[in-house]
């Protein structure tokens, strides 16, 4: 399916001002007069550009509000019915997709288990998922794809460097593959950064925080000064393969004692009983079953040790643990926080917030990143 097209570039200043105005609408629906006050643009500029955004369908009039002279004036908001971004999540636990408007409001969600965990099988299934989503919204404008990917990612090049759970998955040019297939701009991100972007909890007075996404593997995102930290070429920090026991159990990466070898959902459940699911594990733990409580405490101990090291480097105010298995970490909270307190050097331990994930946070965050990028970089006009 071909993209219906993004308008050709206007002169730089006009594009910049259009982006400023649309960005202000994203931050909150408002009247033209309110947008003028918030952006500092002239009344003539706001009026002309708002009319153009209305004509192009990026914004709509959502109602009227009172004005000082008793008149009513139109309130402008992002159009929830068109100009969509597709957020995607490629993860060992499955493929997810969300359809979002430019305000990152979710219109619909899609989830599939990975049918064939090898390079060509996953890419083929991803293409089919995207095609079905675009076809479902036939006649609507899709502006871009925002793809969250587990493993090592070069976000600048749009390349998934390594995803260990899929056979043959090395140096995959995801951006190129998807843009050639769908003729839509594609942006590739490290999945924990996308989960971080989807959070609404951090506030302006809490600008330094760390997020750990714990599923089959562990990913980390770090925010300093309210901005997500990225490394060279957009390749992000790795925590899952930090050694917590150099003589410990073998990790799939070939090393011993990696954090990810001890703290992943599959191992925790199997330590209680091979093939156990989350519900049976939690029920056993609440009964006081030694196998279940022991598995949870071991995971909490190793995760707490790793978090203490992170805290000694970044000194975050809050550590978020986001997981579909968050209830397990709640069971282990006391052990986890004890390890952090015992090993954080010379300071107050961070607040630990355990977030129960619905599995769509990374896909939604990919849409958040992409919508903001399209506007901030004036790519829509």
Describe this protein with a few key phrases.
alpha/beta; Arc Repressor Mutant, subunit A; Nucleotidyltransferase, domain 5; five-stranded mixed β-sheet; 13 helices; 23% strand; globular
What is the structural class? alpha/beta
Parts with pLDDT < 50 across at least 5 consecutive residues:
1-10
What CATH calls the topology of the largest domain is Nucleotidyltransferase, domain 5
Order of helices and strands: HEHHEEEEEHEEEEHEHEEEHHHHEHHEH
Q: Percent range for helical residues?
A: 25-40%
In words, what does this structure look like?
By secondary structure, the chain is an alpha/beta fold. It has 3 domains: 5-78, Arc Repressor Mutant, subunit A (Orthogonal Bundle), CATH 1.10.10; 84-195 and 361-376, Nucleotidyltransferase, domain 5 (2-Layer Sandwich); 201-356, ATPase, nucleotide binding domain (Nucleotidyltransferase, domain 5). Helix content is 40%, strand content 23%. It has 13 helices and 16 strands. The strands form 4 sheets. It has a 5-stranded mixed sheet with strand order 6-5-4-7-11, sandwiched between helices. A 5-stranded mixed sheet has the order 14-13-12-15-16, sandwiched between helices. β13 and β14 (227-228) form a beta hairpin. α6 (191-198) packs across α13 (361-376) and α9 (278-286) crosses α10. The longest helix has 25 residues, at 290-314. It is globular and about 70 Å long. The two termini are 22 Å apart. Mean pLDDT is 89; it is low at 1-10.
